[in-house]
Structures are given as structure tokens and as C-alpha cells.
From TrEMBL:
Gene3D superfamilies noted in UniProt: Fumarylacetoacetase-like, C-terminal domain (3.90.850.10)
Stated name of the protein: Fumarylacetoacetate hydrolase
Residue span(s) of domain Fumarylacetoacetase N-terminal: 1-79
Membrane-spanning ranges: none
An example Gene Ontology molecular-function term: hydrolase activity
Alphabetical UniProt keywords: Hydrolase
InterPro entries in the record: FAA_hydro_N, Fumarylacetoacetase_C_sf
Keyword match Hydrolase: yes
Superkingdom in the source lineage: Bacteria
Length: 112
């Protein structure tokens, strides 16, 4: 199954589309999941209907398709959630290690 995030003016996460195997046709599937992030979060509920649309799309059974133009699409998850910690301040290291359930190493006291 090929999923893509169509750029839109009203949603920074893009609009979820299913793209055929040949990468020539697409269809909007906002009635199933508005965004790829939403689809991932509700995968058990949306996988089957998305797979059915993908199969029908590849078999030419869907009339409401449009030409797939890669330049019209954003990255699959334009605003993916991430928490990255690159700090080396002692208090930050202590907090991160505490959050992981780990003790702070003794070296972090005298050596920041």
C-alpha cells in the first residue's frame, strides 16, 4: 500500500491519499483518516479500508482519482512528533536519566 500526504493550504500535516502501485493515480481518503499521523494512531481501524481502496485503485475500479504528481506532496509525516535531547548540562543529564529510570553517572558531577 502506498500512502502520501498531499500539500493543502488548510492543513500543515497534509491530506492523506492512497497512490496506486504505478505512481500514476491517487485518491483522497480523508473520510478514513485525515492525515497519515491520524492513520498511524488509529491503524487497527483504518488499515483494512485503506487496503481495500489501494486494491480497487490498482484494479481501476475507482473513478474519482486524479493524476499523482510527486511535487504536490509533502514528506509523509510533515510534522512528525519527536523529542530530541542533545544537551550536556548536568541538570539536564540528571533529568533525562531520571526520566529513563537511570542513575546519573558520578563523572557528570565534576565534568559537565
Amino acid at each position: 500500500m502506498k500512502l502520501a500526504s498531499l500539500r493543502t493550504a488548510n492543513c500543515r500535516d497534509g491530506e492523506l491519499c492512497v497512490v496506486n502501485q504505478a505512481l500514476t493515480q491517487a485518491i483522497k481518503v480523508g473520510h478514513i483518516a485525515k492525515t497519515l499521523q491520524s492513520a498511524i494512531e488509529h491503524w487497527q481501524a483504518v488499515e483494512k479500508p485503506l487496503q481495500e481502496i489501494y486494491q480497487a485503485l490498482n484494479e481501476g475500479q475507482i473513478q474519482s482519482t486524479f493524476a499523482f504528481k510527486p511535487d504536490d506532496y509533502a514528506s509523509p509525516l510533515p510534522r512528525a512528533y519527536q523529542w530530541a535531547d542533545a544537551s550536556a548540562y548536568v541538570n539536564h543529564v540528571e533529568l533525562v536519566r531520571k526520566a529513563r529510570g537511570q542513575k546519573c553517572l558520578p563523572i557528570f558531577g565534576p565534568t559537565p
